[in-house]
């Protein structure tokens, strides 16, 4: 058993100023507030300004997380940004964040696992920390999805928003006198055979363009319910924790009906779920840390509570993490 625990020492988030309601969208897309709300639970989304890059959103979320952790950029040895909307094809968005917050030279890279990206990044940072390679890591999910929405495809363009969420993960010595803290178990998976259900139809080595989001909503929905629930079962089993002990389920915010179906399968009461979809829409890799931050800042999530994060998206890729906050 590792003698170092990976604890969440700070959480922060950032949403761009521009709020676009369903009614606003209905002025330029053939849609209606009633359809969007009833099918997805979304009421509004935030869109970044033209001159606001993903690294700007990420850096602002990072500052809030550092502040809550009581740490300075100089304390950070690893920055991972999970994103499908990087500032540039290369270098990584993480190095721009490093430069923008004034963090010293250290490890910095991006993860491409779409909506599951934050969980992939968390898992990797956890390994760096528990093996003693670094003490503090910034793990950020940040997206400017508005830059590759197809406004002619009403089945996708109404579902997404921009934003960033960040956590500072820190290594602390484990103490046998008390129950384990921090990340208790993680689980990741992906199935490339399902890639045609959710992807961007562009890329540097294929079209030379960024592309637009393409989605087979029904297939993604079905897989999301199955795999998000399965991923929660997996981490509770790995950590030998009963699902009834979970204080907060913090799922990816893609569709309220997916979240409710997962809760039913997991026999989790809906009052134990952090839901932000109405205000944030689907922000891909940013959605889980944005929701965690919302739950902490409104006082629902408290230190010592048991949290489970889970997400599925493009890949299809999915994952979960069980955390004693
Ligand atoms: O973050 C990655 C994970 N993503 C997800 O998990 C998304 C998963 N999928 C979903 O959330 C849902 O499948 C959607 C919200 C995308 C769609 O819900 P649905 O209940 O599967 O609706 P649908 O695709 O079957 O569309 C039904 C109808 C169609 O009309 P007809 O053919 O029945 O007359 C669509 O043309 O709704 C129509 N429609 C719309 N109407 C108004 C599709 N988009 C819109 C729209 N406004 N924006």
List keywords for this structure.
10 helices; five-stranded mixed sheet; binds oxa(dethia)-CoA; four-stranded mixed sheet; 32% helix; alpha/beta; 2 domains; 325 residues
* Helix amount: 25-40%
CATH topology description of the largest domain = Peroxisomal Thiolase, Chain A, domain 1
Stretches where pLDDT falls below 50 for ≥5 residues?
none
| CA-based shape | globular
Write the element-wise H/E pattern from the N-terminal end onward. EEHHEHEHEHEHEEEEHEHHHEE
Number of strands: 13
| Sheet with the most strands: spatial strand order | 1-7-6-4-5
Estimate the strand proportion: 25-35%
Mean pLDDT: 97
Distance between the termini: 19 Å
- Overall SS class: alpha/beta
What's this entry about, in short?
The chain is α/β, with parallel strands linked by helices and 325 residues long.
Textual characterization of the structure:
The structure is a single chain. The mean pLDDT is 97. The two termini are 19 Å apart. The protein has two domains: 4-173, Peroxisomal Thiolase, Chain A, domain 1 (3-Layer(aba) Sandwich), CATH 3.40.47; 182-324, Peroxisomal Thiolase, Chain A, domain 1. With 325 residues, it is an alpha/beta fold. Strand 12 (306-313) and strand 13 (317-324) form a beta hairpin. The strands form four sheets. A five-stranded mixed β-sheet has the order 1-7-6-4-5, sandwiched between helices. Strands 8-13-12-11 form a four-stranded mixed β-sheet, with helices on both faces. The chain has helices at residues 22-26, 33-40, 54-69, 93-101, 117-130, 154-157, 217-238, 256-266, 277-280, 287-297, and strands spanning 4-14, 18-21, 44-47, 78-82, 107-111, 136-144, 162-173, 182-190, 198-200, 213-215, 248-251, 306-313, 317-324. The radius of gyration is 18 Å and the shape is globular. Helix 3 crosses helix 4 and helix 7 (217-238) runs parallel beside helix 8. Helices cover 32% and strands 26% of the residues. Residues 31-32, 35-36, 39-40, 115, 154-155, 158, 198, 217-218, 220-221, 224, 254-255, 258, 282, 284, 313 line the site of oxa(dethia)-CoA.
